[in-house]
Structure formats: structure tokens, C-alpha cells
Amino acid sequence: MRVAVFSAKAYDRTYLDAANKSAKHDLCYLEAPLSATTAVLACDAQAVCAFVNDTLDAPVLEKLAGEGVRLVALRCAGFNNVDLEAARDLGITVARVPAYSPHAVAEHTIALILAVNRKIHRAYNRVREGNFALDGLVGFDLHGKTVGIVGTGTIGAITAGILKGFGCRVIAHDVKPNPDCEAMGIAYVDRETLLAESDIISLHCPLTPQTHHMIDSAAISRMKKGVMIVNTSRGAVIDTRAVLHGLKSGKIGSLALDVYEEEGDLFFRDLSSTIIEDDVFARLLTFPNVLITGHQAFFTHEALTNIAETTIANIDAFAKTGKAEHEVSIERLA
């Protein structure tokens, strides 16, 4: 099966080629992100392989269908960038990687918490310049602090378990409590209680209409002064402008992000020789108590291996049976 792989980086080629050795699909790697302009590059392909920031709205899907594409194989878990209704109407199957390495994301979350709390990013830069002063580097013990986990799927549950190991009091909020978390002694509370009691709030929920800008001005006003907010889920769960106001007022004591709501124009590319035109993002970078990584929480050998193998398995199953192993559709979500 001929597959057009969009937003392809060198590491994508390495891991997908390794996973494709036995399946022997014809993978055509394209550095360009998938959009209405680049969809034509899928010419002669029966499938496209897309990533988290590729555009798969109705106009793009219509162009892909016109090129003969019958499968969209996402090499990520999230699918909020796909118009599933349009895909159904056009007869395009959508498949994803539902799980790759939840430990990778959970461990990166803990790394962000520790780094922004203990000012590791600032200390690193100081020492490189020969500045060994400790002024401004005071952190706090995680032991005994209350951490609120929003979203207790596999990643949220693993994060909660690690934080329990630090001696934190962990509370959680989810529409469906996770028995594994309850077995660890994690108390489920309503959203208002979590906002009011947490010293650290870690976001692990999917992006849905209900969670879009869940962390807004109203939510921030209910939080403790000096709260730490960590987001390794989806950027638009946070209203970035509201968070900026929270940082400026001191209500938010520190912020750690691996995702950003307008990251599609920034992440997964080298912009070091250009001027960042996103004024909101540029403003975030000016705060010493903000730490941002470029959507790298998933980026481990184990995760990349699992992503590639599951992606190829989806393509292989569709080529043989017309059905992918991990399909996502409007009907399945209902």
C-alpha cells in the first residue's frame, strides 16, 4: 500500500522503516505538514500518515478523497484535528495509536514539575555563565503538597502514582473515576474543590468541547495564590491569555507547558533564525517562572517504537481487510 507520510522527520523515517520491514508498504516521506495546500502531494497514495498538528478538516479530507486516499493513519493518540463526520461521509477510515508509552508522558510531567519548581532551567544557564549565586532559585518540597490531577486515564494514573511516591497528597477529577487510582487512595473531588485545594494542578484530559479553555480566568480565580499549573495534554485546555494575566498578578506561581494552543505554527521545526510572530507565546517566554518544551513528552525510544509499530499495523490491517486495528469514528464515540 502506498502511504504519504506528512510532517515527516528523520526519526519518523527511522522508526517507521524499522516497523515496515515485514509489511513492505511503500512509504513516501514528506517534510511538509498536511494542509489544504499540501494535500495534493498525496497523489497516487491510498493512505496518508499524519501527526498531531496536521490539518484534517473537511476541505483537506475532500482533497485527499479526490486523490484516492481511503485511510488516514494518525501516528498519535489525539484526533481532535480530524473532522470525523466529514471522514465518514467521504468514506475515509481514520485510525490512531491509542497508547504508546504512557510512562513517557507521565515521566516528562514529573520532570517539568521538578524543573520549574527547583528552577533547573535558570540554574543551568547561570552556571554556564559562571554565576553560582542561589538568589531567586528557592523551590519547595513536593512532599506533603496537594497535587490535583485532571484526567485519570492511563497517563494521569501513572503520574498520580509517581507523585504518591514523592509523598504528595493526590486528589483527582474525572467524569469517570479510575479504579486503579482509587486503589492507591486517591480521592476524587469535584472540579471546584480541586482548583481550590491544589498546590500543583496537572492536566491530563483530552481536548473536547467541554474541556476547551477549561483553565480560564474564572478557574484561575478559584486557585491558591502561587499555584503551579502543568499541561502535557492538549494546548487548548488552557486559555493562554488568562494564564498570562494569572502570571502577571502572581496568582500563578509557575507554569510548565509541553503543549500550546497555537503550537501548529511553532512546534516540530527550527525557528531559531526567525522572529516568533506569536506575541502571546513570546510573552510567555519572558517569564522566569515559565518552562516550555516543544511537545516532546512522548519522545522516548519506547514510545517511538510503539507508535511506528501500531501505525504500520493499522495500515497493514486496512490493506488486508479494509478495517484498521484502532479505528476512530463518530459512531464509536457515540
Describe the sheet with the most strands: 7 strands, parallel
SS field, number of helical segments: 13
Q: Can you list the strand order of the major beta sheet?
A: 8-7-6-9-10-11-12
Contiguous runs where pLDDT drops below 50 for at least 5 residues: none
CATH superfamily of the largest domain: NAD(P)-binding Rossmann-like Domain
Gap between N and C termini: 31 Å
Helix content: 25-40%
Structural class: alpha/beta
Explain how this protein is built.
The chain has 334 residues and is of the alpha/beta class. It folds into two domains: 2-100 and 300-333, NAD(P)-binding Rossmann-like Domain (Rossmann fold); 102-292, 3-Layer(aba) Sandwich (Rossmann fold), CATH 3.40.50.720. Helices cover 36% and strands 15% of the residues. The chain contains 13 helices and twelve strands. It has helices at residues 10-19, 58-66, 84-90, 102-117, 120-128, 154-165, 179-183, 191-197, 217-221, 240-249, 279-284, 301-321, 330-333; strands at residues 2-5, 26-29, 47-50, 71-74, 93-95, 146-150, 169-173, 187-188, 200-203, 227-231, 252-257, 290-292. The strands form two sheets. The protein has a seven-stranded parallel sheet with strand order 8-7-6-9-10-11-12, sandwiched between helices. Strands 2-1-3-4-5 form a five-stranded parallel sheet, sandwiched between helices. β11, α11 (279-284) and β12 form a beta-alpha-beta unit. α1 packs across α12 and α4 crosses α6. The protein is globular. The model has no long low-confidence stretch (mean pLDDT 96).
